[in-house]
Design goal:
The chain is of the alpha/beta class. It is built from eleven helices and six strands. It binds nicotinamide-adenine-dinucleotide.
């Protein structure tokens, strides 16, 4: 069902790779809700993903960019204003990657070049994106910028590794820049802390299946899907959330407020009996 929540709004969506991607789901939903937007991802992702299908489905131009490159970001943002005919109303940062996670380098044996890349790709790119947009005066008053985070920013979760540090920084950037951009231009900046989700990035975390099972049992409403996450992004892009800024909002079925649930306790007891 469509509510026309983004009718007349323009945006840029970073990070759609395939149908599982959170950004892909956001693009489909934003299109249904009446938005026009551009899509961006790395040249490598364009080769391996199926972004062209999404581009055709949503009538959205693809502008390739490495989000760690300021000049690439300048190109994406200026070209988007050209294609869309003016300033944008929303930007989605749905980007994350850790070579330490990919190459199974544990947190007490990190490769520091990989660590720098994790921070640059997964957190600093958010700052770069916002700074470029602000310098180009590319976002309309009351515009909305959203990035995707994970609860490992606040709590330690086995194997989330250096991505936890990147997410903590990402959430901090939303607060620090949210103050400045809000004060000067009424632009809102928030992060959504999403349940574990089976996507390419999500599956990079070894043991994701066990984690998804655990959080499902722990969350009174169950895990939030990528599609549900997309719904929530649309609300944050819409005029219905105009005074929400500098927040990290948990979109996790209640997981973040739980300590132990009946379902998790039942499973835990079973595993003790099996010992
Ligand atoms: N899947 C989960 O369990 C989960 C949970 C909470 C938060 N998140 C976050 O959601 C966001 C989207 O991830 P997803 O789960 O949809 O997976 P995904 O793999 O579909 O998306 C990650 C995207 O990041 C892009 N990317 C990587 N390096 C880049 C670079 N240098 N420049 C530009 N783009 C780059 C990839 O090409 C890909 O499109 C990430 O920030 C992720 O950390 C995911």
């Amino acid at each position: 069902m469509s509510y026309n929540l983004l009718k007349g709004k323009k945006g840029i969506i970073f990070g759609a790779l395939d149908e599982q991607s959170i950004a892909w789901n956001v693009a489909v939903k934003a299109f249904e809700e009446g938005a026009v937007f551009t899509l961006s991802n790395t040249p490598l992702a364009l080769r391996f993903g199926n972004l062209r299908d999404l581009s055709a489905q949503c009538n959205a131009e693809i502008i390739p960019a490495d989000a760690t490159s300021v000049s690439d970001l300048e190109q994406v943002i200026s070209r988007s204003m050209e294609v869309l005919g003016g300033k944008v109303d929303f930007i989605l940062h749905s980007i994350g990657m850790s070579l330490n996670v990919r190459k199974s380098r544990e947190y007490d044996d990190l490769d520091y070049d990989f660590y720098r890349k994790t921070i640059d790709i997964s957190a600093m790119s958010f700052h770069k994106m916002i700074q470029v947009a602000k310098k180009l005066d590319a976002i309309s008053e009351w515009g909305s910028i959203v990035a995707l985070s994970y609860i490992a920013a606040q709590r330690t979760l086995y194997r989330y590794n250096d991505m936890a540090d990147a997410k903590a920084m990402l959430e901090s950037i939303a607060r620090s820049f949210g103050y400045i951009y809000g004060r000067e231009k009424n632009v809102r900046i928030n992060t959504i802390s999403q349940s574990p989700t089976r996507t390419t990035a999500g599956s990079g975390v070894k043991g994701i299946d066990a984690l998804i099972d655990f959080t499902e049992r722990m969350s009174p409403l169950g895990n939030a899907t990528a599609r549900e996450c997309a719904d929530f992004c649309i609300v944050l892009f819409s005029d219905l959330s105009r005074k929400v800024t500098m927040q990290n909002i948990f979109h996790d079925g209640g997981f973040s407020s739980m300590g132990m649930s009946l379902k998790a306790m039942t499973q835990y007891k079973k595993s003790l009996e099996d010992e």
